[in-house]
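Inputs:
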Amino acid sequence: MRYLLLSLADENTPAPDERLFAEMGAFIEEMSAKGILLATGGLEPGGLRMTSAGGETTVTDGPFTEAKEAAVGFALVEVTSEEEVLELTRRFRRVVGDGVSEIRRVL
Amino acid sequence: MIEAVWRLESAKIIAGLMRVVRDVGLAEEFAQDALVAAMEQWPGEGVPDNPGAWLMAVARRRAVDHVRRERRHDRTHEQMAHDLRDGEEPAQEDTQDDTLRLMFLSCHPVLPPPARVALTLKLVGGLSTAEIARAFLTGEQVVARRVADARRILADHRVDFELPGPPETADRLGSVLEVIYLIFNEGYSAASGDDLMRPHLALEALRLGGTLAELAPEPEVLGLLALMEIQTSRADARTGPSGEPIPLHEQNRGRWDRLRIRRGFTAMLRAREIGGPPGPYLVQAAIAVCHAQAPTAEETDWGQIASLYEILVRLTPTPVVRLNQAVAVGMAYGPQAGLDLADGLTADPALRNYHLLPGVRADLLLRLGRHGEARGEFLRAAQLTDNAAERAFLERRADRIPPDDHAGVLLGEAVGEFLAGLTPSTARSYGQTLHRLCVALGARTPLATVTAAEVGRAATTAWGATAARTWNRHLAAIGSFSAWAQGPGLTGDLRRREQPPPVRRPALQGEPPWDRPGVALRERVLWCLLHESAAPVSRVLALDVDDLDLDDRRSRTGVSWRSRTARLLPELVAGRTRGPLFLSDRRPAPARRPAEKDLCPDTGRRRLSYERAEHLFKQATGRTLRALRSDGVEVGAGRG
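Outputs:
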């Protein structure tokens, strides 16, 4: 089963330092080699937003003030149980420190 | 939670422990201790920061204590303890090497393949015995026994926890690859089953392959990894809504998993960078790449695939590979070229019951416009497959071809008519021969087109290796049928064989087989019962639990026994009230569900088959089960 992990950040989240880059690099390498981590990447904080209503589409530029936390990174993983995805996320959080991750099963 | 940590870390932990204790059983035991400690402490004290390292530290401490104690007791263990670095974490490269050592060990050539698979999944994959049992549709005890046997064999052979030297490395790596591919296929080929454990196996194989590719990035390792990634990419597209197989050229390529394909390509590129002559896995991966690269089935580069098969046939000249080559050649250079190759395989005994051979021939014949033959081959393929969905699919294909009107009487019909006119016992005996012939030649083949040469080839393929007596019996059946049909003779140049005079095998001697150590309860009861009842084997295997009258020591079906069986029986019945008395070890696959009466309603297992029972006895004693009931049995009183 596949899960999409989203890591969320707000304005208080500290910027990543070198140590974090190195640890994250090693973690990503290990998980990709095992075939658990299928894709990952960082996300720009703002981005664009498209809204459609009544056949009309509107594009707005971010950042969006109403959202306190924005997704700043994602990972697509292939695991054998929910327990396993929780353990993976736990390890990820240990590397990045305080913050929030969202875990969504890909259906 | 603890289980999830274990799945991710077990290889490292067991491998690290092996470095200390050098014994699989002990390493597992200390790892188990650490898991128990975690279960006790984590809920109260919270999960440690680095759960993997915590487990490793606890297990290692116990292992080191153990070796110290041993050292005090036994000076010869000094060597063992020599390279202990107490409390110190081994360096990163060491842990990686240890994991590789562990894989080499669990796939060691001294182990029988099922033991290699079980041990690898247990030690390297971190699967529980129950999980492995479910994945292989077998009992937990069976898996536990395989693992225990593996540990014993490794200890008996004093297999070292060291990396093999260069001359041996290729072979040993080959053995690891074989195990990983075996695990993959077990999961992949059953991906439509209800139990999620089986698709998990394919995933587990991918993880093992990925880990191995990191530790030993050899071209063949990367080739296998690429092959598995690309095959997995098609998992969702290869079955329809009701579980029917969808052939490659009809699959919706939009459902292929591009991520997996890309990972496969990456592994291929890494292999290519290393260079060297391609091995079988790399060639198979290259073939898979050709398919993955084709945007539509029509755009497949069959010329390239056919030449890759030519290389593969040189590397692994197995009949199945040659059959696949026939398909590729048929696509690249026209159906006649493919059929020529496929026809060369019809005499191969290994493919005698392989439904894909008539399946492939049917396709090629159809493309050549030989409709009648194609239809017959599809039906023959349908008869041979065990998979219900596949059978329905093949029958549908046959039905779409209109039957020839002026074909006259068909082989199957003629055989049916012939057998109907015989006494039941002759019909049964001749039926075995003639049904086999129908399967080989196609029951829907017009009788008039059957030639002596075809019959000769089918007979030689089916019974060429049997004893003279059996051969002559089959020949007599064919001859009798041929005379009845009044056509041209069908036995052609098949000759009767000289029968050697019968050999009187000595009766069983020495210790009775059921008293031997290590004989499982089911076998003990069966052998004892056969001996005491002198009843036919098939009647004893047909016993149901509710047939038994334990007090009167006999069954409603007329089998009676004496005290030894009577003592053993209650344990085997174990509270059951219905269903077959002797059960197989595994549950049948969904497509192989036997008749209701041969299925235990409580455990879902099927009745023990004659073949299996015979095999087990033969393995144990070298004799057939009938030896147990023959008059001349001379078995000692025994200890029972």
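Remarks. The CA atoms of residues 32 and 61 of chain A lie 33 Å apart. Chain A touches chain B at residues 33-36, 38-39, 76, 78, 80-81, 83-84, 86-88, 90, 94 (CB under 8 Å).
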